[in-house]
Description:
Two copies of one chain form a homodimer. Chain A is mainly alpha-helical. In chain A, about 65% of the residues lie in helices and about 5% in strands.
Amino acid sequence: MADSIQKKLDQIPVESVSDESLTLLVGYNIKRVSNVIQSDLAKTLKPLDLRMITFTTLVLIVDNPGIRQSQLAASLSIERPNFVVIIDELVRRGLVTRKQDPSDRRAYGLYISTAGQRLHKVAIRAVQSHENSLLAHLSAQQRQQLSTTMNLLRQTFMTQHSPGERS
Amino acid sequence: MADSIQKKLDQIPVESVSDESLTLLVGYNIKRVSNVIQSDLAKTLKPLDLRMITFTTLVLIVDNPGIRQSQLAASLSIERPNFVVIIDELVRRGLVTRKQDPSDRRAYGLYISTAGQRLHKVAIRAVQSHENSLLAHLSAQQRQQLSTTMNLLRQTFMTQHSPGERS
DNA sequence: CCATAATAGTTATAAACTATAATCATTTCA
DNA sequence: TGAAATGATTATAGTTTATAACTATTATGG
């Protein structure tokens, strides 16, 4: 019986790749799953001319009107310099406005525009329906577990290596 | 009582950013968690002069001696052209050897060297101990669930959007 | 009060990662 | 045998991420 299994394995010369060693690593699995999701999500957002970063930026501006660029950049774990061009784009497209803070003339508060609100609404719906189809193969319990575990991990990590989660 | 809570909230003007909307999105959570893990893993591998991609390449070559570049690239979801320089590096460092396949002179089989085996051993240990400390805050059951769910998602995705999981 | 440090936003730039087209040699197959 | 397909490569461009340095403004401690 173990023989027949070995026989089968031998019949597959190098055709199928054994990646069990990597499958055992949670970090690797999460990365692969994350990549697939991001790629899929990107396709969902593309018709709206949004990327992950512009989408999440819109969401946080809607939920935090008047927020400053640096706060937003920190929340999204993106370097401030790289975030400038993101905001530039959203402002240029009339989705977001920069208003100078009267109490601190260095800073700008970010606000959503009417067009931005419309796009936000559509995008949220698209992403949510995307998530549903993505997790269609999971039971309600599994989804709950996944969500809980991810949030727990994030909480744990955030308190440890707060800034600069990339590199 | 609700008053005192509101009072506290009011004392934090724009200091704390509300990102509940994003926290509700599993895709976003996974991405954030994945980013933290990759960044942390990178730090673990850096002393060995390995990156995630060179580490995973080493592992798969050890587990699949004689594997071809194109198979390996497909397994790791990296474009073949981008993979050439990875293998170049590993060969240059004496960790991996390319042997021409006698049955197909276009192809090379990839093999680990003695130095490669040594590094592989050390790296596997480092990554595993990294994973343990990473998941220290999860119960055994939670770890099991996490692993199971990730594998399930990966299985599901792979059969759907097999190639080109990025973009 | 003023010099110094710190902060918000920005510019410039480089490194790393990812994607695509095209080429060469070789193999497969009608 | 000729055309199509495959393995590896080169060249190249786009995207993302990181870092240093600058301007303007605000905060702080002597």
